Amino acid sequence: MNQSRWDALAARQPALFALVLLVLSLVINVILQPNMFARETLNSNMRVFLPIILMAVGQAVVILGGGIDISVGGIVSIVNTVLATRVGLDGSPEKMWGFVFLSLLIGLLAGAINGFFIAFLRLQPIITTYATSFLYAGLGLFILPNPGGGIPGSIAALYRNSTPFSLPLAFYVIAIILLIWLYISSTRYGKFLYAVGGKAEAAYETAVPVNMVRFSTYVISGLMAALSGIAITMLSGSGNADIGGPMTLNSITAVVIGGNALSGGVGGVVGPVMGAITVGIIQNIISFADIDTWWETFVKATIIVVALATPGIVNLFRRRRI
Amino acid sequence: MKRISISPPVAALLLAVTLFLLSGLLPNGFGSNLDVARAQATNIVRLAVFLGVIAAGQTLVIISGSEGIDLSAGSVVTLTAILTYIVVNGANERVLTALLVTLAVGALIGFINGVGITFLRISPFVMTLGMAGVVTGAIIVITHGTVSGKVAPIMTRLIARPLSPDLQIPNAIIIWLIFGILMWLLLERTTFGRNLFAIGVNRVTARLSGVNVTGMNLATYSLAGALAGFGGFLLVGNTGVVHLQLGQPFLFPSIAAVAVGGTLLSGGKGSYWGTMAGAIVLTLITSLLTTMQMPESVRRMVLGATLLILISIYGRQRALRQ
Predict the structure, then answer these.
(1) In a mutagenesis test of the B interface, which of A130, A247, A248 is the best target, namely the one with the most B β-carbons within 10 Å?
(2) What is the DSSP letter of A279?
(3) DSSP string computed for A220-272
(4) What is the DSSP string of B81-147?
(5) A204 CA: distance to closest CA in chain B (Å)
(6) Running along chain B, 322 residues long, what does each successive block of 10 average in pLDDT?
(7) Is CATH 2.60.40 correct for A43-321?
(8) Is B138 in Cβ contact with A142 (below 8 Å)?
(9) CB contact under 8 A, B122 and A138
(10) Closest CA to B248 of B147, B135, B85, B122
(11) Do B318 and A145 touch (CB under 8 A)?
């Protein structure tokens, strides 16, 4: 009886698993880094996590709608290289904000290209965004062939050191995103999103504009990837065309451990946000655990694969019990 | 009027020939010198061998359907090339051992992919992408950044050079032809091949018709891993040197080569002849861009755009409105 109650709870609250994982990794992190909740440490952690959180939110929306977006890392690379080459270390703040606005347009456009091919030309999401990821990452490398360039130090400091009311800037950004999501998921569009991700044919037959919904998820993902690119550029202060690539898998991992089904229609955005923080904390733990440098990549990658596998393992055991 | 239809492998081959003839018109092309033209053609086919062998495993997993893909192929190639290098260490008598090791290691990695995909329900793209990271980590652990070893003289003799001085075709091409015949036999004349196409079209009907879908999936991914391993072995035998990024550049082209050859990216339809033609086309495109002195960024964008155009032609899925 206890078991079935847990199952029902887990089915209704897919984010519950993410919460358990988050608390668990938090506890380990606190043991390794006792001052973790000090204002400075908290802020320095959260500003590192924010880019992947932003990206994971966009990825979550796409995956909810039954797709996937492999090109998000490429979009980050374009935004990063554009900002680093066009604004420059001695650029004015006005110039910076102008290019931040342009970056958002770039994200929207890149997402619209993905959405056009997938929703209207009916191509497979994975392979399409894999192809555009090459296109976008290549463009990033074209803009900035070698790492360099940068943004004004004052702007970078604004991102790095802002702690209004003693809370990290990232907390406010997350709160705004979650509020927007809360609103969106209560609207008709929110219901459409779950319907398309759950079963597109059924959604189509009940007059849901399936293609428009699909298209919109990629545009949202492109926009979030651009925001992520702006955040990571302000964090690093410099340009590097390879900065986005590794983030893609992290964003998918965040969504998966956030409790969303990769097949679509199940989950939300709260879980993936927690998932993204968990991914960040895990990397924290690895760097604190004093692992031999040569082993770091291996350990990180293995943990990611295990994290991706956890929902599957949990399901495997659940099916056995029944 | 009857619509003229050309099968994709033939179309790809025609495309290759056209591209090759056009490349002769470039300022530094072969012009009207037939000897140079033949030498260049041989060279391109020789380079295509490695992409072709690596894309063989990719062909199998893509035919198996359910969004089958192997993104770990690139890092498996690097790993097995390094293992060959270390195991052989210049001694002719250890070449066979090295070949067996590479096949076994490749198959093991493929098997793990298969387990994750089949039992833990991780999407193939995500699972193999994660595995690519793990293998890259393993490479760093094994090599600590530098590789010491040597290929054996017999490998260069058997792979890079022609059988006899009169025959101006390097052995690699002959190996590839034999390999192609074996792949054709596997796909068209064995139960494995028949079952592979069956699960690619529809897993449910395949299972109901008595195909062991789980076993097939595990076998396909293991075989794909082993074939990538074989690719690594051949590659190091040809180049004679290894580096940590040896295999990665082959990954994206290996998928594109399968798509060029007319294998449906949604599975169930395809051939290895097509992939062979596709490998030649992609090698040709890459070498053309190199001849035209295009930077890495442009090459990436062209590859991405090529794949995007191809899937727009071949990969469209049916509309919801029937």
Answers:
(1) A130
(2) H
(3) HHHHHHHHHHHHHHHHH-SB-TTSSHHHHHHHHHHHHHTT--TTSSS--SHHH
(4) HHHHHHHHTT-GGGHHHHHHHHHHHHHHHHHHHHHHHHTS---HHHHHHHHHHHHHHHHHHHHTT--
(5) 7
(6) 65 84 75 78 89 94 91 94 88 87 96 93 88 93 81 78 75 90 93 92 90 93 95 88 87 89 84 91 87 85 86 71 59
(7) no
(8) no
(9) no
(10) B135
(11) no
| Interchain contact, B141 vs A294, CB within 8 Å | yes
Phi/psi of residue A208, nearest 5 degrees:
-85, 130
Helix (H, G, I), strand (E, B) or coil at A3: helix
Cα separation values, A170 from A15, A44, A46, A226, B304, Å:
20, 10, 6, 16, 34
Are A297 and B312 a contacting pair at CB < 8 A?
A: no
**Are B315 and A201 within 8 A, CB to CB?**
no
pTM, to two decimals:
0.86
Collect all residues of chain B within an 8 Å Cβ-Cβ radius of residue A132: 304, 308
- By Cβ distance, the residue of A68, A70, A142 closest to B301 is A142
How far is residue B82's CA from residue B195's CA, in Å, rounded to a whole number?
Answer: 34
Residue A148, SS3 per DSSP: strand
Task: Look at B116 and A298 and tell me if their CB atoms are within 8 Å.
Answer: no
A-B contacts at Cβ under 8 angstroms: 148
B137 shares contact with chain A (CB less than 8 Å): yes
Provide the chain B residues 40-69 that lie in CB contact (below 8 A) with chain A: 67, 69
| A270 has a pLDDT exceeding 50 | yes
State what percent of residues in chain B have pLDDT above 90: 39
Among B245, B309, B320, B321, most A C-beta atoms within 10 A, so best to mutate, is B320
Token pair in block for residue A261: 């089904």
Q: Measured in whole angstroms, how far is the alpha carbon of residue B27 from the centre of its chain? A: 31
Contact A92, A152 (CB under 8 A): yes
- Helix, strand or coil, per DSSP, at residue A194: helix
Write the residue in A70, A134, A294 that is nearest to B140 by C-beta. Answer: A294
Report helix, strand or coil for A71.
coil
Please give the radius of gyration of chain B, using alpha carbons only, rounded to the nearest integer: 20
Tokens of A243: 């900065």
Domains of chain B: 45-313 (1.10.3470)
Binary contact (B136, A204; C-beta < 8 A): no
Nearest to A15 by CA among A317, A275, A314: A275
User: Positive or negative CA dihedral for B2, B7, B11, B13?
Assistant: negative
- Three-state secondary structure call for residue B162: strand
Among chain B residues, CA nearest to A313: B120
The answer to whether the CB atoms of B127 and A308 lie below 8 A apart is yes
Cross-strand pairs, A239: A148
Amino acid identity for residue B75 in this structure: S
Q: How does pLDDT run across B125-141, given as a tens digit for each residue?
A: 889 989 999 999 999 99
Tokens of A193: 């999103």
Number of other residues whose CB lies within 10 A of the CB of residue A120? 12
pLDDT in tens, B268-299: 888 999 899 999 989 988 888 888 888 888 98
